[in-house]
Amino acid sequence: MKKHKLCIFALGGGVLILFITSLFLYTITNPIHRINPDLSNNNYFVAHATGSLDGYTYLNSKESLLKSLKNGYKYIEVDLHLTVDSILVCVHDWEQFNKMTIPNLCRKDTNIYRKIPPYKEFYSRKIYGKFSPLSFSDLLIFQEQLPFIIITDKISNPEILNRFIPPQRRSRIMVEAFSKNDYYKLKNHGYTPMFSLGCVNFFHGGIQFIISQIFNHEIEWITAEQHSSKRTLRLLKKLFNLNIALYTVNSAYYFNWHLVNDVNLIYTDNWNLKTQLNDYEDNTTQ
Fold first, then answer.
1. Are strands 75-82 and 88-90 parallel, antiparallel or unpaired?
2. CA Rg, the chain, in Å?
3. Are 78 and 134 in contact (CB under 8 A)?
4. What is the pLDDT of residues 228-248, one digit of tens each?
Protein backbone atom coordinates (compact mmCIF):
# COMPACT_ATOMS: atom_id res chain seq x y z
CA MET A 1 0.00 0.00 0.00
CA LYS A 2 2.82 2.37 0.90
CA LYS A 3 4.62 1.55 -2.34
CA HIS A 4 1.43 2.27 -4.26
CA LYS A 5 1.08 5.70 -2.62
CA LEU A 6 4.74 6.47 -3.22
CA CYS A 7 4.37 5.59 -6.91
CA ILE A 8 1.34 7.86 -7.25
CA PHE A 9 3.17 10.69 -5.46
CA ALA A 10 6.28 10.22 -7.62
CA LEU A 11 4.19 10.12 -10.79
CA GLY A 12 2.30 13.27 -9.80
CA GLY A 13 5.54 15.04 -8.94
CA GLY A 14 7.07 14.01 -12.23
CA VAL A 15 4.09 15.30 -14.20
CA LEU A 16 4.20 18.59 -12.28
CA ILE A 17 7.91 19.03 -12.92
CA LEU A 18 7.40 18.20 -16.59
CA PHE A 19 4.60 20.75 -16.84
CA ILE A 20 6.62 23.52 -15.19
CA THR A 21 9.69 22.68 -17.31
CA SER A 22 7.64 22.72 -20.52
CA LEU A 23 6.04 26.03 -19.64
CA PHE A 24 9.41 27.51 -18.71
CA LEU A 25 10.92 26.36 -22.01
CA TYR A 26 7.95 27.84 -23.83
CA THR A 27 8.47 31.24 -22.22
CA ILE A 28 12.19 31.36 -22.97
CA THR A 29 11.96 30.06 -26.54
CA ASN A 30 8.97 32.13 -27.66
CA PRO A 31 9.62 35.81 -28.23
CA ILE A 32 7.79 38.42 -26.21
CA HIS A 33 5.42 39.98 -28.70
CA ARG A 34 6.12 43.60 -29.44
CA ILE A 35 2.83 45.42 -29.41
CA ASN A 36 1.82 49.05 -29.43
CA PRO A 37 -0.47 49.48 -26.44
CA ASP A 38 -2.54 52.62 -25.99
CA LEU A 39 -0.28 54.69 -23.73
CA SER A 40 -3.16 57.02 -22.94
CA ASN A 41 -5.13 54.15 -21.37
CA ASN A 42 -5.58 55.04 -17.70
CA ASN A 43 -6.29 51.41 -16.83
CA TYR A 44 -2.54 50.68 -17.09
CA PHE A 45 -0.88 53.45 -15.11
CA VAL A 46 -0.42 54.27 -11.44
CA ALA A 47 0.61 57.77 -10.32
CA HIS A 48 3.62 56.93 -8.14
CA ALA A 49 3.62 58.85 -4.81
CA THR A 50 0.70 60.90 -6.25
CA GLY A 51 2.80 61.69 -9.35
CA SER A 52 5.39 64.35 -10.10
CA LEU A 53 4.88 68.10 -10.27
CA ASP A 54 7.23 70.86 -11.45
CA GLY A 55 9.95 68.22 -11.82
CA TYR A 56 9.69 66.97 -8.22
CA THR A 57 8.91 63.34 -7.37
CA TYR A 58 7.88 61.47 -4.19
CA LEU A 59 5.71 64.44 -3.22
CA ASN A 60 2.62 62.73 -1.75
CA SER A 61 1.03 66.19 -1.91
CA LYS A 62 -2.43 67.61 -2.56
CA GLU A 63 -1.25 69.51 -5.62
CA SER A 64 0.40 66.52 -7.32
CA LEU A 65 -2.64 64.37 -6.50
CA LEU A 66 -4.98 66.87 -8.15
CA LYS A 67 -2.68 67.13 -11.17
CA SER A 68 -2.67 63.33 -11.62
CA LEU A 69 -6.45 63.13 -11.29
CA LYS A 70 -6.85 65.93 -13.83
CA ASN A 71 -4.45 64.05 -16.12
CA GLY A 72 -6.84 61.09 -15.99
CA TYR A 73 -5.17 58.65 -13.59
CA LYS A 74 -7.51 56.05 -12.08
CA TYR A 75 -4.85 54.59 -9.77
CA ILE A 76 -3.02 56.75 -7.21
CA GLU A 77 -0.16 55.29 -5.16
CA VAL A 78 0.72 56.84 -1.81
CA ASP A 79 3.25 56.00 0.88
CA LEU A 80 1.81 55.79 4.38
CA HIS A 81 3.35 56.38 7.80
CA LEU A 82 2.12 57.33 11.24
CA THR A 83 2.96 60.66 12.86
CA VAL A 84 4.35 60.61 16.37
CA ASP A 85 0.78 61.04 17.68
CA SER A 86 -0.44 58.10 15.55
CA ILE A 87 -2.23 59.86 12.68
CA LEU A 88 -1.95 58.20 9.25
CA VAL A 89 -0.38 60.49 6.65
CA CYS A 90 1.06 60.27 3.15
CA VAL A 91 4.84 60.49 3.23
CA HIS A 92 7.53 58.33 1.62
CA ASP A 93 9.79 58.40 4.68
CA TRP A 94 10.41 60.88 7.47
CA GLU A 95 14.02 61.59 6.59
CA GLN A 96 13.06 62.62 3.07
CA PHE A 97 10.04 64.59 4.29
CA ASN A 98 12.17 66.55 6.77
CA LYS A 99 14.70 67.39 4.07
CA MET A 100 11.90 68.59 1.76
CA THR A 101 10.09 70.67 4.37
CA ILE A 102 12.61 72.19 6.80
CA PRO A 103 14.55 75.14 5.28
CA ASN A 104 18.28 75.23 5.96
CA LEU A 105 18.20 71.85 7.66
CA CYS A 106 21.50 71.12 9.38
CA ARG A 107 23.05 68.37 7.29
CA LYS A 108 25.28 67.22 10.15
CA ASP A 109 22.49 66.53 12.62
CA THR A 110 21.10 63.20 11.41
CA ASN A 111 18.72 63.04 14.39
CA ILE A 112 16.72 65.93 12.88
CA TYR A 113 16.37 63.93 9.67
CA ARG A 114 14.81 60.99 11.48
CA LYS A 115 12.51 62.97 13.75
CA ILE A 116 8.82 62.07 13.37
CA PRO A 117 6.67 65.19 13.77
CA PRO A 118 3.24 65.38 15.40
CA TYR A 119 0.31 65.67 13.02
CA LYS A 120 -0.25 69.42 13.52
CA GLU A 121 3.37 70.19 12.66
CA PHE A 122 3.32 67.78 9.69
CA TYR A 123 0.23 69.45 8.27
CA SER A 124 1.56 72.99 8.72
CA ARG A 125 4.74 72.43 6.71
CA LYS A 126 5.22 73.08 2.99
CA ILE A 127 6.99 70.62 0.68
CA TYR A 128 9.74 72.50 -1.18
CA GLY A 129 8.16 75.66 0.18
CA LYS A 130 5.02 75.40 -1.98
CA PHE A 131 3.23 72.01 -1.88
CA SER A 132 0.72 70.93 0.77
CA PRO A 133 1.19 67.69 2.74
CA LEU A 134 -1.54 65.10 2.40
CA SER A 135 -3.16 63.21 5.25
CA PHE A 136 -4.88 59.90 4.63
CA SER A 137 -8.21 61.40 5.69
CA ASP A 138 -7.71 64.03 2.94
CA LEU A 139 -7.14 61.23 0.47
CA LEU A 140 -10.37 59.50 1.42
CA ILE A 141 -12.28 62.77 0.98
CA PHE A 142 -10.84 63.18 -2.53
CA GLN A 143 -11.75 59.57 -3.28
CA GLU A 144 -15.35 60.24 -2.30
CA GLN A 145 -15.51 62.90 -5.00
CA LEU A 146 -13.63 61.07 -7.75
CA PRO A 147 -13.63 57.33 -8.63
CA PHE A 148 -9.94 56.51 -8.26
CA ILE A 149 -8.28 53.49 -6.65
CA ILE A 150 -5.79 54.04 -3.82
CA ILE A 151 -2.65 51.89 -3.88
CA THR A 152 -0.36 51.98 -0.88
CA ASP A 153 2.75 50.42 0.57
CA LYS A 154 4.98 50.80 3.65
CA ILE A 155 2.20 49.65 6.03
CA SER A 156 0.67 46.24 5.33
CA ASN A 157 -0.63 45.47 8.81
CA PRO A 158 -4.45 45.51 8.54
CA GLU A 159 -4.80 46.18 12.26
CA ILE A 160 -3.24 49.62 11.69
CA LEU A 161 -5.07 50.37 8.44
CA ASN A 162 -8.45 49.35 9.84
CA ARG A 163 -8.25 52.17 12.38
CA PHE A 164 -8.46 54.69 9.54
CA ILE A 165 -10.35 52.88 6.78
CA PRO A 166 -14.01 51.89 7.21
CA PRO A 167 -15.05 48.48 5.81
CA GLN A 168 -17.12 49.98 2.97
CA ARG A 169 -14.04 51.78 1.56
CA ARG A 170 -11.59 48.87 1.56
CA SER A 171 -12.65 47.41 -1.80
CA ARG A 172 -11.17 50.53 -3.48
CA ILE A 173 -7.80 50.22 -1.74
CA MET A 174 -4.93 48.00 -2.92
CA VAL A 175 -2.22 47.31 -0.34
CA GLU A 176 1.27 45.97 -1.00
CA ALA A 177 1.80 43.14 1.48
CA PHE A 178 5.29 42.27 2.73
CA SER A 179 4.40 38.89 4.21
CA LYS A 180 2.02 36.09 3.30
CA ASN A 181 0.39 36.45 6.69
CA ASP A 182 -0.42 40.13 6.01
CA TYR A 183 -1.61 39.22 2.49
CA TYR A 184 -4.23 36.79 3.77
CA LYS A 185 -5.29 39.10 6.61
CA LEU A 186 -5.71 42.05 4.24
CA LYS A 187 -7.79 39.93 1.89
CA ASN A 188 -10.01 38.76 4.74
CA HIS A 189 -10.58 42.38 5.79
CA GLY A 190 -11.81 43.40 2.33
CA TYR A 191 -8.70 44.99 0.79
CA THR A 192 -7.08 43.96 -2.49
CA PRO A 193 -3.61 42.86 -1.37
CA MET A 194 -0.56 42.67 -3.65
CA PHE A 195 2.22 40.34 -2.55
CA SER A 196 5.64 42.03 -2.83
CA LEU A 197 8.22 39.98 -4.73
CA GLY A 198 10.76 42.74 -5.23
CA CYS A 199 13.18 41.90 -8.06
CA VAL A 200 11.79 38.57 -9.24
CA ASN A 201 14.16 35.82 -10.30
CA PHE A 202 14.22 32.09 -9.75
CA PHE A 203 17.30 32.20 -7.54
CA HIS A 204 16.09 34.88 -5.13
CA GLY A 205 12.59 34.19 -3.91
CA GLY A 206 10.97 33.11 -7.15
CA ILE A 207 11.20 29.36 -6.49
CA GLN A 208 9.81 29.71 -2.95
CA PHE A 209 6.89 31.72 -4.28
CA ILE A 210 6.17 29.15 -7.01
CA ILE A 211 6.26 26.23 -4.55
CA SER A 212 3.91 28.11 -2.24
CA GLN A 213 1.48 28.85 -5.07
CA ILE A 214 1.44 25.23 -6.26
CA PHE A 215 0.24 24.03 -2.87
CA ASN A 216 -1.79 27.08 -1.81
CA HIS A 217 -2.96 28.98 -4.88
CA GLU A 218 -4.41 32.05 -3.16
CA ILE A 219 -2.23 34.99 -4.24
CA GLU A 220 -3.81 36.94 -7.10
CA TRP A 221 -1.67 40.10 -7.28
CA ILE A 222 2.09 40.59 -7.00
CA THR A 223 4.31 43.65 -7.21
CA ALA A 224 7.72 43.49 -8.87
CA GLU A 225 10.63 45.84 -9.52
CA GLN A 226 11.00 47.11 -13.10
CA HIS A 227 14.28 45.23 -13.69
CA SER A 228 12.66 41.88 -12.89
CA SER A 229 13.10 39.21 -15.53
CA LYS A 230 10.35 39.67 -18.10
CA ARG A 231 10.33 35.97 -18.91
CA THR A 232 10.05 35.06 -15.24
CA LEU A 233 7.08 37.39 -14.89
CA ARG A 234 5.48 35.77 -17.94
CA LEU A 235 6.06 32.33 -16.46
CA LEU A 236 4.50 33.29 -13.13
CA LYS A 237 1.59 34.93 -14.92
CA LYS A 238 0.91 31.83 -17.05
CA LEU A 239 1.38 29.35 -14.22
CA PHE A 240 -0.88 31.07 -11.72
CA ASN A 241 -2.98 33.55 -13.71
CA LEU A 242 -1.44 36.37 -11.68
CA ASN A 243 -1.99 40.09 -11.95
CA ILE A 244 1.31 41.98 -11.89
CA ALA A 245 2.03 45.57 -10.83
CA LEU A 246 5.48 46.86 -11.84
CA TYR A 247 7.35 49.80 -10.27
CA THR A 248 8.63 52.40 -11.29
CA VAL A 249 8.85 53.14 -15.05
CA ASN A 250 9.01 56.50 -16.82
CA SER A 251 9.54 55.86 -20.52
CA ALA A 252 7.46 54.77 -23.49
CA TYR A 253 10.16 52.27 -24.47
CA TYR A 254 9.70 50.28 -21.25
CA PHE A 255 5.93 50.69 -21.30
CA ASN A 256 5.82 48.98 -24.69
CA TRP A 257 8.26 46.36 -23.43
CA HIS A 258 6.16 45.34 -20.46
CA LEU A 259 2.52 46.17 -21.05
CA VAL A 260 -0.40 43.83 -21.77
CA ASN A 261 1.50 40.54 -22.16
CA ASP A 262 3.64 40.95 -19.07
CA VAL A 263 2.05 43.23 -16.49
CA ASN A 264 -1.31 44.72 -15.57
CA LEU A 265 -0.28 47.96 -13.86
CA ILE A 266 2.80 50.17 -14.11
CA TYR A 267 3.79 52.76 -11.50
CA THR A 268 5.11 55.95 -13.09
CA ASP A 269 6.17 59.42 -11.93
CA ASN A 270 6.04 61.58 -15.02
CA TRP A 271 3.86 60.01 -17.69
CA ASN A 272 1.34 62.39 -19.25
CA LEU A 273 -1.68 60.33 -20.33
CA LYS A 274 -2.98 63.08 -22.59
CA THR A 275 0.19 63.93 -24.53
CA GLN A 276 1.67 60.40 -24.18
CA LEU A 277 5.02 61.96 -23.31
CA ASN A 278 7.25 62.04 -20.25
CA ASP A 279 6.81 65.50 -18.75
CA TYR A 280 10.29 65.92 -17.29
CA GLU A 281 12.78 63.36 -18.61
CA ASP A 282 14.20 62.02 -21.85
CA ASN A 283 11.39 59.80 -23.17
CA THR A 284 13.79 57.20 -24.58
CA THR A 285 15.30 56.18 -21.24
CA GLN A 286 13.96 54.77 -17.98
1. antiparallel
2. 21
3. yes
4. 877 778 888 888 888 999 999
